[in-house]
């Protein structure tokens, strides 16, 4: 990041999540540029809009490329921002008229609707799922496993916890996760409490060297982190998934978003 | 949801998150319509594109309004989808040329870059933050509190846990959360372990009736869930925030996304 790198503003009348998400996606297509980023959420008054337009003008006046990604709904506020000297990308206005045509309906413009409480039932589901995932992290509880929609299983440090949290928080999936340990591999059987719920199970694996690196960071120099132990656990886990026809994926070089999207698709959740 | 309601497809060469986020935001502007939703992630081959175009055609042939939100990067695949009879909203192509002009740079189109591992350092920060937030949920651990970037405090059930998880997972903020209990209020002082970190503290409050309802769901008929107890705790929490000049917000009617965006802004994280 330098004083001359381009600057991106993400401006929204709500949380700014939508503006950041699409804006950042577009910026990833310019991988050789670094961007200074500013998010401006909850912009709802003309005073605020003028103030932000002023900040944009100041940056643009220094000669730096200045891009404004906006999801502001109100045309008046949009006009104020658009009049600034930044390059205005109207993520909202560009598409809403297309949609009106497609749906033969008139939009009912309301700011900040996307990431508010919105659909109260769906929101409640997500919060309940977070609670469920917290309680059922790493096999801590076997209570109400029949209520799980998904049970992630894997050797330690293959990404069970962040994936469970992501699926619960973003998608409202009641996710339990369970570690596979030496004992399970020696018995060649799934942990007892989850055996009745085979159809809810999804397995994670990793790549031995990668797993060993991750474990070394946590517990350097232990058998637990050794390449031989990681290789052995992963081979056994894969055998167990195959034996029980449990769908699985290798999480070694995937983000939690990619792992989650793959699981949702494969498990048809 | 009926057999005649409009249908939205979210099609992506990556996780589908960007297409869903902006697509859903646009659909919120048509609050009187219900949409049947289909997400198609990881579309990367012409065969897959033809197959999805076929599904879109089938739906559109029934006379239902059919909208396709696409963030597919590859122009060839986009062309296949656009040739279907669905109404094609090109969230990617509509803006990338504008950006090339603004940045005086040529985009380097790469699919699925937005929610992959991407910036490895930033991704690692997020995963570390999730681990930190899990360990420091509900005052479970006071180890390494000096490493926290944020300490959320509140009476039970004001939203500490999901907010911590969201900030950790989405923003990589190492967040601890600590309950405020009767004892703290009687002593009129912050819990001992967090007192040295006053500048990292952010308080949540709620609305007494709302808090009582939330607690009743968990523990019906208890003193803990009674309106009088909730009123007392919230009044004391607010006094404590004021006395210690701790920034705070009322979470009663806000989503976890809104709470998080407000905290990020106020704490300048």
TrEMBL record, chains A, B:
ADP binds at residues 154-161. It is an enzyme of class 2 (transferase). It comes from the Bacteria. It catalyses: [pyruvate, water dikinase]-phosphate + phosphate + H(+) = [pyruvate, water dikinase] + diphosphate; [pyruvate, water dikinase] + ADP = [pyruvate, water dikinase]-phosphate + AMP + H(+). It holds the Pfam family Kinase-PPPase. GO terms for molecular function: ADP binding; ATP binding; phosphotransferase activity, phosphate group as acceptor; protein serine/threonine kinase activity. Keywords: Kinase, Nucleotide-binding, Serine/threonine-protein kinase, Transferase. Its EC number is 2.7.11.33, 2.7.4.28. Belongs to the pyruvate, phosphate/water dikinase regulatory protein family. PSRP subfamily. Bifunctional serine/threonine kinase and phosphorylase involved in the regulation of the phosphoenolpyruvate synthase (PEPS) by catalyzing its phosphorylation/dephosphorylation. HAMAP family: PSRP. NCBIfam families: PRK05339.1 (NF003742). PANTHER family: PYRUVATE, PHOSPHATE DIKINASE REGULATORY PROTEIN 1, CHLOROPLASTIC. This is Putative phosphoenolpyruvate synthase regulatory protein.
